[in-house]
Amino acid sequence: MLSDQQLLRYSRQIMLGDIDIEGQQQLLDSKVLVIGLGGLGSPVAMYLAASGVGSLVLLDDDEVELSNLQRQIIHQQSSLGQAKVASAGERIHALNPDIQVQLIAHRLAAPSLEKVVAQVDLVVDCTDNFATRYLINRLCVKQTKPLVSGAAIRMEGQLLTVDPRVSGSPCYQCLYPRGEHEGEELSCSQSGVLAPLVGVIGSMQALEVLKVLTGVGEALVGRLMVFDAKSMQWQTLKLKADLNCPVCKGNK
To answer: Using one digit for the tens of pLDDT, what is the confidence trace for 189-236?
Structure first.
């Protein structure tokens, strides 16, 4: 049951008929894993905390560097040299001290990561390489956990939601077959990125998370949203499950 302080804190969300007190309680009872506390993970973590997602698990094995501060807005000058999860945890506590935060500051092997995935309600992929994305996708499909995946590079971004609970829905590997993209570099350190772009995509990821957790609206399952910052245009592409996908096998 929401306290008086919680009713006041989340009043603007509770006013929405689609959310109401029941939806807010669902958020408070939810546990979300955010993998990557960089450009995308920064707005994701802050908006989820501000919105009242009750428990966040933050996973990142990197430390804050000066070049991160151009876009990774959860960190600040005083965070330099600090573990990103520790810096993010401090910022979240300052923003909303009621949120429970679990910090994982080291890379997890697949078996350990799978155990963490099994303990949460949803996973947000804010990483920047295909190998990690493939692993996260595989574990989410195996554990039947929704996955909200985002990417941003240069002046382009994309977003999709994988939900193994939805029959016939595609997974990340249906979109990007393994072998065709493995080894490709998505790092901002090599390709560059315009700072607000990660804020746009990360905010959209956070919005998708809230929708999936509360069941409000239509999630991006079976659809890929692509954003071109130069032209300020969004495109939505319909996706089909690959019946030969070794991960979801067309999610039969």
So the answer is: 667 899 999 999 999 999 999 999 999 999 999 999 999 999 999 999
CA dihedral sign of residues 130, 135, 140, 142: positive
Classify the C-alpha dihedral 142-144-145-146 as positive or negative: positive
Catalytic residues: 188
Question: CA separation (Å) from 237 to 112, 173, 220, 240?
Answer: 34, 16, 10, 10
Tokens encoding 244 = 């030969």
**Number of neighbours of residue 36 by Cβ within 10 angstroms:** 25
Q: Which two tokens stand for residue 116?
A: 């963490």
Which pair of tokens denotes residue 140? 């989410």
- Give how far Cα 22 sits from Cα of 28, 31, 157, 215, Å: 10, 16, 33, 11
State the fold for domain 4-251.
Answer: Rossmann fold (3.40.50)
Structure tokens at 97: 């001290």
Q: How many CB atoms are located within 10 Å of the residue 195 CB? A: 12
Domain-wise residue ranges, the chain? 4-251
Query: Hey, is 25 helix, strand or coil?
Result: helix
pLDDT in tens, 119-154: 999 999 999 889 999 999 999 999 999 999 999 999
